[in-house]
Queue: 2 jobs
Job 1
Amino acid sequence: MLLFRRIAIIVALFATGACLDPSSGLRSDLPPDGIAAYFPVSVGNRWVYSTADGEGQQTFIDTITVTTVEGSIATLEHREHFSNQEIRGYTLTYRVAEDGITRVALNGVVSDTGLHLIRAPISAGTEWRTRLQILRIATVDTTVNTMTGIFTDVIVVQTQTCMGCTVPGSIWRSYYAKGIGLVKHERYSYDALDYPPFRTQSLISYGR
């Protein structure tokens, strides 16, 4: 359950503590427009994120690196660290297509039903569902402040988990900047047993 929650926080999909040089930029093996612009994948692209609880206490650092890109399929390696010690590692595989970004495998095991992180069209109100989730593009052309700096041309995808999609379990907001990818993630849990209820993940460096 803990692994699922951490993966869900990342969506996404964000180190040894060494910052990358943002000026090195990110590249994409896929057309840099449309949905692919919000999920740039090229071998070597790397994002580093810091996750903190509601009181601002850092819980772990997550480094995500693109390891392979074959056609529309990209595999990203996650390495979670706390106090410079690795605590968990796993891989997520995605399909990047014109109609959406879809998670298709965890640690090489293909999912029966893919999870769409983003779906077309890129416009406020676009909505899709899974058995236990309701997802929608809440806003577009948003500006967001992160530990890396201020990003513009951001879309916000809101995810509500639910039991039968009637009683909320948690709400996640994922912020994707054009040309950069996921820059911030927020989660609030309504589960009294899930402490702390609020967590935020912020991009602290990116590049190659």
Job 2
Amino acid sequence: MGFDSAIQRKIMGQFATGVTVVTTGGEAGVHGLTANAVASLSLNPPLVLVAVDKRAHSMSFLHANRCFAVNILRLDQEPVSNRFATPGPKDFDGLETKTDVTGSPILVGCVGYLDCRVVEILPGGDHEIFVGEIVGGELNGGEPLLYHAGSYRRLAP
């Protein structure tokens, strides 16, 4: 018998994370999803990883477009996080976006972003791990939106 996934969820929920919206753009179209399973992987070469649930609607877009942007959300962008956390098609209406190298949508006003080309896709249980080589990015600053124990949080002063 394996480890209880409900207990795993509770334990890992104590690990405070930043909140991102991972976007992709290309021939398959644009799409995005809220993600906190994001990590810096390597500085040389510059790599990040994003773990995506195999059931996510974004999966086919990521596979076809072979690129993504990691948009690190600001504290006041909680509604953006909620918009991209729901299953199904995503709506970019009313959001100011731009593009960088890959054509993936960049959310204007986020704390910062990384624009990436997919260099490898690895199995990860019920997720797939997209390894992206960073080809563009920008640090804008601001207070980041955090997630801990099932709720959005902010940094203490």
